[in-house]
């Protein structure tokens, strides 16, 4: 059993932790919350470093803002799940950009992540992930394109997950670049296809890694495995909702939604099996067991597990230009639980957990640290999603 160490301070509130777990409700849910864990949380609570902060809403009126990217000229690119990409420039929100590819927007499907190429200043490539296709036949896709005025041009398809599926849920679709300019993206299990998370001839339930033009890196773990898709980086995942590259330690942190319980943080290892659906601490939404196993030889143990679920959104690794007390910590947005979790990592272990920003009361879809060190929260709402900038 993992030991919870909850901080108490200006930014956190362990009583609120318990209350929010009990009153959890969510567009994503069928995920029911239990209150058993909260008693344990309270008794192991201990003080953690906390800081005061200032917050400012820098954009509002957004429809399910999902991700942001920081352009070198100070503007932001913002995705809205319904299929719009906007710029926030000099405090002003643009009209939706023209020239986006067709996007299949329904339920959890739509426009997802936006990430700049590491050499953006030289090549101008902007990468977008989204749901491509139709209700009967859809998949996670990545394209890259360049920005010209308020339009995307030069669009190229980089990756399309296969096989196509007929569910509008569990896309994964967050991605990040590594130092070698390869990119790694989560592809969710499609919900009805969880067995495929263990099948190496399917992208469902995997992290995939491709070069920046979509070609296959020679050192991917399954390039020489007969019958395996060569893009696969790791397998046995459910619905991955964040991936962060830790440049200092040259490693990848990711998290994924479990079913009811079993939300996980994992340190990705190429070629490793992360267990789903053979191993989980969660249960099906009906309460039925998914599997008898919470541990199994040959499957990676999560670095952290949330049971009951918090429904994690995006995640950021604190560089510490402004929030230097938190340098090296992981900050995880939470949808269902409506707060941010700060995880202190020592080695490969999470040693301390604190809840932050519960006072906004918002489903938080994403959290990012800007190049200047401020934190940006994206609140999830159909008509008044906000971007909140937080500074010490
Ligand atoms: Ca797992």
Structure description:
This protein is mostly beta strands. It has a single domain, classed as TolB, C-terminal domain (Neuraminidase), CATH 2.120.10.30. It is 5% helix and 39% strand. It is built from three helices and 24 strands. Strands 1-24-23-22 form a four-stranded antiparallel β-sheet, with no helix packed on it. Helix 1 runs antiparallel to helix 2 (36-43). The radius of gyration is 20 Å and the shape is globular. The protein starts with 13 loop residues before the first helix and ends with a strand. Mean pLDDT is 89; it is low at 1-49. Calcium ion (CA) binds at residues 264, 274-276, 279, 302. Calcium ion binds at residues 264, 274-276, 279, 302.
Which labels suit this protein?
24 strands; Neuraminidase; about 400 residues; disordered N terminus; binds calcium ion; 4-stranded antiparallel sheet; mainly beta
Summary, kept brief:
This protein has helices at residues 14-22, 36-43, 120-123, and strands spanning 54-62, 65-70, 76-80, 84-89, 92-93, 111-116, 126-134, 137-148, 151-160, 172-177, 183-187, 206-210, 232-235, 239-246, 251-257, 263-267, 304-306, 312-317, 330-334, 340-346, 349-356, 364-369, 375-379, 385-391. The protein has 392 residues and is mainly beta. The protein has a single domain (65-341), classed as 6 Propeller (Neuraminidase), CATH 2.120.10.
Give the ligands present: calcium ion
Total count of strands:
24
Please name the fourth-level CATH homologous superfamily.
Answer: TolB, C-terminal domain
**How much is the average pLDDT?**
89
Q: Structural class, from secondary structure content?
A: mainly beta
Separation of the first and last Cα atoms = 34 Å
Count of discrete alpha- or pi-helical segments spanning 4 or more residues: 3
CATH-assigned fold name: Neuraminidase
* Low-confidence runs: 1-49
| Relative strand content | 35-45%
Largest sheet geometry: 4 strands, antiparallel
Our count of domains comes out at 1
Assigned CATH architecture: 6 Propeller
CATH class: Mainly Beta
Shape: globular
Strand order of the largest sheet: 1-24-23-22
H/E element sequence: HHEEEEEEHEEEEEEEEEEEEEEEEEE
Q: Percentage of helical residues?
A: under 10%
């Amino acid at each position: 059993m993992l030991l919870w160490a909850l901080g108490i301070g200006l930014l956190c509130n362990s009583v609120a932790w318990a209350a929010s777990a009990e009153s959890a409700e969510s567009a994503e849910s069928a995920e029911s919350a239990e209150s058993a864990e909260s008693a344990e949380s309270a008794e192991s609570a201990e003080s953690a470093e906390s800081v005061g902060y200032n917050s400012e809403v820098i954009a509002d009126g957004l429809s399910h803002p999902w991700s942001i990217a920081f352009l070198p000229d100070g503007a932001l690119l913002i995705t809205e799940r319904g299929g719009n990409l906007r710029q926030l420039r000099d405090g002003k929100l643009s009209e939706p950009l023209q020239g986006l590819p067709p996007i299949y927007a329904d339920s959890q499907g739509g426009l997802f992540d936006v990430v700049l190429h590491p050499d953006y200043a030289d090549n101008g490539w902007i990468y977008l992930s989204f749901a491509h296709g139709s209700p009967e036949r859809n998949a996670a896709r990545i394209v890259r394109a360049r920005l010209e005025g308020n339009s995307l041009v030069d669009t190229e398809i980089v990756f399309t997950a296969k096989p196509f599926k007929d569910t509008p849920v569990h896309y994964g679709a967050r991605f990040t670049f590594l130092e070698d300019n390869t990119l790694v993206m989560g592809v969710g299990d499609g919900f009805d296809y969880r067995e495929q998370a263990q099948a190496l001839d399917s992208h469902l339930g995997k992290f995939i890694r491709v070069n920046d033009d979509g070609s296959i890196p020679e050192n991917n773990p399954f390039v020489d495995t007969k019958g395996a898709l060569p893009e696969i980086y790791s397998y046995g995942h459910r619905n991955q909702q964040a991936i962060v590259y830790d440049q200092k330690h040259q490693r990848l942190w990711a998290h994924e939604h479990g079913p009811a319980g079993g939300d996980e943080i994992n340190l990705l290892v190429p070629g490793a099996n992360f267990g789903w659906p053979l191993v989980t601490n969660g249960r099906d939404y009906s309460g039925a067991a998914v599997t008898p196993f919470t541990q199994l030889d040959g499957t990676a143990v999560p670095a952290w597990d949330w049971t009951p679920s918090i429904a994690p959104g995006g995640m950021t690794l604190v560089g510490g230009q402004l929030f230097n007390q938190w340098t090296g910590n992981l900050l995880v947005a939470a949808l269902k639980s409506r707060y941010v979790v700060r995880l202190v990592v020592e080695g490969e272990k999470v040693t301390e957990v604190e809840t932050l920003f519960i006072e906004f009361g918002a489903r938080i879809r994403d959290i990012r640290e800007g190049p200047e060190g401020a934190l940006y929260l994206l609140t999830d709402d159909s008509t008044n999603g906000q971007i909140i900038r937080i500074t010490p």
